[in-house]
Amino acid sequence: MDELIDKFVKEWHLSVPEQRTLPPSGLPGNRIVARISAILQSDGHYPFDWQPSDAFDGGLIVRGNSDFTLYWKAEVGVGRYELTETETTDDPGVAARSWARRFLGDEFDGIKINWKD
User: Fold this and answer.
1) Total count of domains within the chain
2) Alpha-carbon distance 83 to 76, whole Å?
3) Taking residues 45-59, what's their average pLDDT?
């Protein structure tokens, strides 16, 4: 399961054969959050290839000196993205959970996310 969580956190996708190996409840949300939190501790931002100045639709977490800021952007016109909200916390787990719940929801790319366990 750890390999599938790592792949999903990096690519936001699992192949159909990989999805068939998942339990009916889906991927455990708490393990997704733990993996993203570990990435924040080691790399300082998540998703890997996004920066606050980039054009993106979704959320980005960036580690500061003593906190973590979530930047939420939305498409406001064709190819135009604006910052819509920021959140700040000193806990990488809180930042990771906020990002994952909002960005991934209860299902992402046909993959259930189990937030109950």
Assistant:
1) 1
2) 10
3) 89
